[in-house]
Amino acid sequence: MLPSADPSQVDSTAHIIQVALTPVFLLSGIATLLNVFSTRHARIADQVEKLSDRITERPGDQARLRDLRRRSLALDVAVVVAALGGVAICGAVLTLFLGTLRDAAVASVLFFLFGAAIVCTLASLTAFAIEMTLASRTVRTEVDQQQREEAEESAEEESAEEAKVR
């Protein structure tokens, strides 16, 4: 027969496991964010490579490259801050396993690390939002430019047809 466990000890152990799992879920979310940031970085790199090949063909390409550079910098900030948030989460989990929450010093370290992780995650999301805004503005600018070019071309064609009719 198995010895019976003290209910308070089981509750205490269950609580520590629950508290330790919360940061792990946040760490999983941060990893997903880093994956999204990485995908966005790859798209920007592809666009830069495409623009670099034809830099002399269109006058707006230099401005586009500047926009892509700003987007890349915003993503760099998002990645670094999210990674720091992940480090803070790992530190919080390590603190939970190395100490007890009853110890005031350990509780302070845990509070600081978890708080730092939340702040870093918020900062990375803010940087990502800035990058997304820059990306959507660039897309709108490009669409407007293409529409203007098409309107100019159709106006030129109409002028040429009118000149033929005269």
Nutshell version of this structure?
The chain is an all-alpha fold and 166 residues long. The protein has helices spanning 7-53, 61-98, 104-165. It has 3 helices and no strands.
Task: Give an overview in words.
- This protein has helices at 7-53, 61-98, 104-165.
- By secondary structure, the chain is mainly alpha-helical.
- The longest helix is centred in the last third of the chain and has 62 residues, at 104-165.
- The mean pLDDT is 76.
Features:
single chain; mainly alpha; 166 residues
Instruction: From the alpha carbons, calculate the radius of gyration and give it in angstroms.
Output: 27 Å
Taking the sheet with the most strands, its summary is: none
The helix-strand sequence is HHH
User: In terms of quaternary structure, what is this?
Assistant: single chain
Structural class: mainly alpha
